[in-house]
Design goal:
mainly beta; 21-stranded antiparallel sheet; five-stranded mixed sheet; 38 strands
């Protein structure tokens, strides 16, 4: 009944959206950005044309400029949320400057009067380090496009992950574009122009948004505001590039070639006017080192990726605008080999022919469509309605000969065809007036999961019915015809040297696996053989995860105080259901005499299970075949995931030293009930989520920035996190850490634990256009 109700409601929302879209076509939503507009006049009230208006944030490096028209008006669109220093210069007038704090999609409108040069004027300076500080309770890092090209990104195929890891504190790199945010595995999410993306963005799960499409990023590693939910250890709030305001076309073509035959080419172009704009980018990559290899020598690691991104903005009237993001990415790559699976001298155990080296490959196709409409209700209030559809299709291909997949760490040959489709609606209302910056909204989304997995056993010793006199497993060639442990005592060895008699039975033999053991004929008495085709086991899973989120938040600024109040409610309806009320609270105080901002915050967060192979992890133990490979504690019993919930506490400060150095740091305590991690299907490369009883993660993170000191700029980020997880495992298939067998609530350090990590980036540019 609940599913039928939610489906009907979802259909209703789509109809409402389409009606709104038909009436107000071509709208633009600035989910994480807005515009600064205004009029420049002289002391008599006459307009000032050709005045230059500039805004900049010295910490993030964001800079933009505009020139007033014949009516003295200017507009700077697509400004990410941040504090900025604004300056105005005009011929015959004294320079003007003021600070502008952008914290909402409500446009900032200014009326500025310039003084005649040489006349009396008043200049107010609030503090030498005032431009460097943000009076906010949320610990975050702002990364502007100016830093993108200057960072030496170590991965071309997952450049967004690489940039986030190098520029933001508390984030440790994992392989293949994964990263651990403050001691959590993949508890990270993206918000792209307001579109929530909470599924994994590693290049072995999905395709990331291309770096060339990003204008700026706000990486939130503190207590998240109420508008963000689910996976919030790190929230990456992305503002994409726009062509609006580019009255002459601007673009670039880049290409590079490097080690491992890595070559790429990219092109982007932006063009528009005062009321419209289009930005498009396309790129391609080919590399002999696409994924991170397990050996220092790199082989069988080729891959390629192609992507295209297009953003269209159109202002239909003074009150209505539309915005649509379109994207498609395709990637194809080999699974890197190691010296252990080159299969030199290995023969097919069935026909005896030599087998080729392991040749496993993957292909991922991703498309995304996200239109939105913005309505300016009055100068203080903006309404946004948006929709989004994103789909990943992941193919994993085994070697042509399944026995080529056999190696020291892989006992099965596996293939997978998996899709993840996420569709939803979002709406919010923003109101800014006086000391209040209020935002309330709702997001409804459905995630459709289809998982089709095939596998067969290729290790002759795996699940052998008998052991020889030395305790070694006896393969089929050691005793042909032996498929029943009950007959081991009378079995005859074909090779007494390799497999000496007498044989003993394997007490852990799983008869159901015999159907899918490619080195042995299928036993007639085996259980579960009805599901086999050509000796391969088939797992087909499907589910539809429905989620509804409602939130309200208000940032109250009064004098030196900033108070962030919020509450969020989440309803999760997947293979299990859960509801959670999540209060959020943050306080910041600006000590102006010392250029210090003190902050404390608290957040309650609902954590939802990973969607990648969620059905396999939740229902696999219900299968006699899979339960033997997954290490299930209780075979034939499903292990569905229950969403987790977290209480997290943060305390930190921001300190400016003059105009040239700013430090920001925070200490964090995170306590989670039902904490997530990943395990593997048997010994295959296919991973799936698992769930532990709880976790405790304390740690600290910090950032030191030198915006510009005589051409020298620097950035240092550092962190230390203790990631302690506790048994028992309560969801997903089996994975028991060593040293905890039989213990209840035993603590162990998980691989997200990071004793210390640090990155320092220093550069020198003698003049603005110099090298």
């Amino acid at each position: 009944m609940l599913a039928s109700y939610l489906k009907s409601r979802f259909a209703t929302y789509i109809v409402v959206f389409l009606l709104a879209f038909g009436i107000h076509a071509y709208a633009q939503s600035g989910g994480s950005s807005t515009s600064i507009t205004g009029t420049i006049v002289d002391p008599t009230g006459a307009v000032v044309p050709n005045a230059v208006v500039e805004i900049r944030n010295p910490v993030s490096g964001f800079e933009r400029a505009a020139t007033t028209d014949s009516a003295g008006k200017f507009s700077i669109p697509n400004i990410p949320f941040n504090p900025y220093h604004l300056t105005v210069t005009g011929p015959g007038f004294s320079p003007y400057s003021q600070d502008v704090d952008v914290r909402s999609i409500v446009p900032v409108t200014l009326s500025i009067t310039l003084e005649i040069k040489g006349s009396n004027e008043t200049v107010t300076v609030e503090g030498a380090g005032e431009d460097l500080l943000e009076k906010t309770s949320t610990f975050h890092t702002d990364v502007d496009r100016g830093l993108f090209d200057k960072m030496p990104l170590e991965s071309r195929s997952s450049s967004v992950s690489s940039l986030v890891t190098l520029s933001s504190p508390g984030i440790a790199a994992d392989s293949n574009g994964l990263f651990h945010g403050l001691g959590d595995h993949a508890e990270n999410s993206f918000s792209v122009d307001g579109q929530p993306i909470t599924d994994q963005q590693s290049k072995v799960f999905s395709n990331q948004i291309p770096l060339d499409s990003i204008e700026s990023m706000e990486v939130i590693s503190g207590a998240p505001p109420a508008e963000f939910g689910e996976k919030t250890s790190v929230v990456i709030n992305v503002t994409t590039r726009s062509g609006r305001g580019m009255t002459s076309p601007k673009g670039s073509i880049t290409t590079s070639y490097g080690s491992f035959g890595t070559a790429d080419v990219g092109i982007n172009l932006g063009y528009g006017g005062a009321k419209w704009g289009n930005f498009i980018s396309a790129s391609g990559l080919n590399s002999g080192r696409f994924l991170d290899p397990p050996e220092f020598a790199v082989f069988h690691d080729k891959g390629n990726e192609e992507n295209v991104f297009d953003r269209v903005d159109f202002q239909v009237s003074k009150l209505d605008s539309v915005h649509i993001n379109l994207g498609f990415t395709r990637s194809w790559f080999q699974t890197p080999n190691s010296f252990d699976n080159l299969n030199t001298g290995v023969t097919d155990p069935v026909v005896g022919n030599p087998v080729a080296q392991t040749d496993q490959r993957s292909q991922i196709k991703t498309f995304n469509i996200a239109p939105s409409w913005t309505r300016l209700i009055n100068p203080n209030t903006v309404f946004t309605l948006g929709a989004f559809v994103r789909r990943d299709r992941y193919h994993y291909y085994p070697s042509d000969n399944p026995f080529s997949d056999f190696g020291p760490i892989q006992q099965e040959s596996v293939s997978q065809d998996r899709t993840l489709a996420n569709a939803g609606l979002r709406s919010d209302l923003s109101y800014v007036k006086g000391i209040h910056n209020l935002k309330a909204g709702a997001t409804y989304q459905q995630t459709f999961l289809d998982e089709n997995t095939r596998f067969g056993i290729v290790d002759p010793a795996l699940n052998a019915p008998c052991f020889d006199a030395n305790g070694n497993a006896v393969p089929w060639v050691g005793s042909p015809g032996m498929n029943d442990p009950a007959n081991c005592g009378s079995a005859v060895s074909t090779n007494p040297v390799l497999y000496p008699a007498p044989f003993t039975s394997n007490a852990d033999f799983f008869n159901s696996l015999g159907c899918f053991h490619l080195t042995r004929p299928t036993p007639a008495s085996a259980d579960g053989c009805a599901g086999s085709t050509s000796g391969l086991f088939r797992f087909n899973g499907h589910t539809d995860v429905k989620q509804l989120a409602l939130y309200m938040q208000d940032t109250i600024t009064k004098g030196s105080w900033s108070l962030n109040l919020g509450v969020r409610g989440d309803i999760y309806n997947g293979l299990t259901t859960h509801r959670e009320a999540e209060p959020r609270l943050g306080v910041a105080y600006n000590v102006k005499k010392t250029n210090t901002v003190l902050r404390v915050s608290y957040a309650r967060v609902l954590e939802t299970p990973f969607n990648e192979n969620l059905v396999l992890a939740s229902t696999g133990c219900d299968s006699l075949v899979l339960s033997s490979l997954l290490g299930c504690a209780t075979p034939s019993v499903a292990t569905p995931f229950a969403p987790g919930w977290r209480n997290e506490f943060h305390a930190g400060l921001q300190q400016a030293f003059g105009k040239y150095v700013v430090f920001s740091g925070e200490y964090t305590w995170k306590y989670t009930h039902n904490a997530y991690d990943f395990s593997v299907l048997g010994s295959t490369p296919i991973t799936f989520p698992i769930e532990w009883h709880n976790s405790k993660i304390p740690g600290f993170a910090g950032r030191v920035s030198v915006p510009d000191f005589h051409g020298v700029s620097a950035l240092m980020v550092f962190s230390s996190v203790a990631a302690r997880f506790f048994t028992p495992q309560i969801g997903g298939a089996g994975a028991v850490p060593s040293g905890t067998v039989g213990e209840a609530f035993a603590a162990f350090r998980i691989d997200h634990d990071e004793k210390f990590n640090q990155t320092t980036h220093v550069q020198y540019q003698p003049w603005k256009t110099g090298p």
